[in-house]
Amino acid sequence: MADKQTQNTGEKTSLHPRNPHRERYDFAQLTKALPKLSAFMFTNEHGIKTIDFTDAEAVKMLNKAILKQQYGIASWDIPQGFLCPPIPGRADYIHYIADILAEGNGGEVPTGNQVKVLDIGVGANCIYPLVGHKTYGWQFVGSEVDYIAAGSAKKIVEDNKLTDAIEIRTQSSYAHIFQGIIKPGEKFDITMCNPPFHASAKEVNANSQRKWQNLKQDKGTDLNFGGRNTELWCEGGEPRFLNKMMSESKQFAHASKWFSSLISKKTTLPGCFNSLDYLGARDVKTIDMAQGQKSSRILVWRF
């Protein structure tokens, strides 16, 4: 039985206290940083300047502006069809794992390049390493099984002269997560992952259709944030992917102080708790996250 198993049950409706994206988007500052964003802006019925969040190009331009204005990332782009994530929610994951690392550092968030983080499935967008390094100075390794996504992430790193801080590694096997990525003798402070949580392309399309119906938009099954198969679904969905990750984490218990993953579906948690108990995890935590109507959680464990 794990020594400690904590699940935060209080519902959150806002972002982490250190998250700089807690307030409304400051479009004046964002367009100052990236003037091209202004072409996608309009004033809504409430007299507020905004963009069309169902427009993929508008969302991508907003991300470019946020990364430039808030994080000093001058060059960022992703190939057509790849996931274009909302940065505020991604930043939240970084700030919450910083709190986990602070627990072993006298309550202070450790900063600088002595902290090493492994991002499983870094994606073409490379968001977590960019935000984590620019916010806390951490070193990152990002793994990616899709060679096009890996190439995109590498280009972002190289274009922004961050090769000393962020390394992208290609996972050659769909059957493994940590194996083939973590090198012999290598040590990480924590691993992180935003796993594909759908079980099939059909499930992705059904979920997308519901989304557009909720928005009262007739745009078929195209997602405004995009996403390739490896980003959105895998056989067995979130539970199977996480079970594989947890099993491999036991094999690499010596290589990381903590392991973590986003959990999209609350119903996935009980199975994860059972698996980690079986594997002998000594410390298991969940952290609730929310941004407006959307809620998720982070599962964190160590051996």
UniProtKB/TrEMBL annotation:
<feature type="compositionally biased region" description="Polar residues">
    <location>
        <begin position="1"/>
        <end position="12"/>
    </location>
</feature>
<keyword id="KW-0489">Methyltransferase</keyword>
<keyword id="KW-0949">S-adenosyl-L-methionine</keyword>
<dbReference type="InterPro" id="IPR016909">
    <property type="entry name" value="rRNA_lsu_MeTfrase_F"/>
</dbReference>
<dbReference type="InterPro" id="IPR029063">
    <property type="entry name" value="SAM-dependent_MTases_sf"/>
</dbReference>
<dbReference type="GO" id="GO:0052907">
    <property type="term" value="F:23S rRNA (adenine(1618)-N(6))-methyltransferase activity"/>
</dbReference>
<feature type="region of interest" description="Disordered">
    <location>
        <begin position="1"/>
        <end position="22"/>
    </location>
</feature>
<keyword id="KW-0698">rRNA processing</keyword>
<keyword id="KW-0808">Transferase</keyword>
<dbReference type="GO" id="GO:0070475">
    <property type="term" value="P:rRNA base methylation"/>
</dbReference>
<comment type="function">
    <text>Specifically methylates the adenine in position 1618 of 23S rRNA.</text>
</comment>
<comment type="similarity">
    <text>Belongs to the methyltransferase superfamily. METTL16/RlmF family.</text>
</comment>
<protein>
    <recommendedName>
        <fullName>Ribosomal RNA large subunit methyltransferase F</fullName>
        <ecNumber>2.1.1.181</ecNumber>
    </recommendedName>
</protein>
<dbReference type="Pfam" id="PF05971">
    <property type="entry name" value="Methyltransf_10"/>
</dbReference>
<dbReference type="GO" id="GO:0005737">
    <property type="term" value="C:cytoplasm"/>
</dbReference>
<keyword id="KW-0963">Cytoplasm</keyword>
<dbReference type="InterPro" id="IPR010286">
    <property type="entry name" value="METTL16/RlmF"/>
</dbReference>
